[in-house]
Amino acid sequence: MALPLVILTHPLPPEWISTLQGRVRLLVGPAEPPGFAPHLLEQLGGAEGILCLLTDKVDSALLEAAPRLRVVSNMAVGFDNIDIAACTLRKIPVGNTPGVLTDATADLTLALLLSSARTLFKAAMDAKDGFWRTWSPTGWLGADLRGATLGIVGMGKIGKAVAERAKGFGLKLIYTDSKHLPEVDAQYSAEFRSLDNLLRESDFVSLHCPLNAKTRGLIDETALKKMKPTATLINTARGPIIVNDALVRALREGWIAGAALDVTDPEPLPPEHPLYDLPNSFIVPHIGSATHGTRRRMAEMACENLLAGLDGEKLPNHVNPDIYPA
Ligand code: GLV
Q: What DSSP line would sit under 90-115, residue for residue?
């Protein structure tokens, strides 16, 4: 019997996807540009599985062109690139990779917080560029962390992992979520706030909510104007949670002190974008989960989901509610 055709939108190291060997026929897309390459789109009609990245849009039009499709496996925890309702309508389960990237993303969040608090990027550049001429008592001054307030927006797995780390630095923790989570208060010595109050009180605001209809544009002009002029905004969640133009104005006009972003809108952020030129914005290219171990485990989990879907079994991690009978 012919092996099922699977579209892998981007090449992955063979050792990360070794479980697919002998189980599927792989049609692999190029490393760049992101998305479904033309030669993949041509073969959609015969594809039974898709293993894709967060940069690949799976919408109704794509599903229409793939009548044999039985599973979509996203190598990411976020799944805002996929029209889940459209997949569910066609009884196509969608897999994701939760849990495995929690630590790596929380680590990066702390790296961004620390580097912006201590002006690391500018200090390193100045040293390299010959501005380190003396030990300056007033040079490269940053913020103290002990006693400062960190506001966590979205107290899911990653938000909690950030809280656990931040406690070690003596930060006071406040958080917001769709509801008060009493078990979180006790475990992380954190206090619940409305979003408005969190924005007003925080010295650092860190975003950890998923991107969905409720959170798109959550941090807009009104929200940014509620923040302290000394505060820093950190985003390792999804770019469109922040309204970009409002952020540029906030940084230019001093509504807030700085932004440290792992995610942007759009991605990649074009090199001519004004956010790169602002001295108080620090941008890295969506590397929250980018450790050797994490990325490998994400790929392995994506393969597990894919194979389960092709075998007609329940995906170990699926995101469409109501796809399986109770
Ligand atoms: C990364 O952003 C992910 O959603 O896995």
A: TT--EE---STTHHHHHHHHHHHHHH
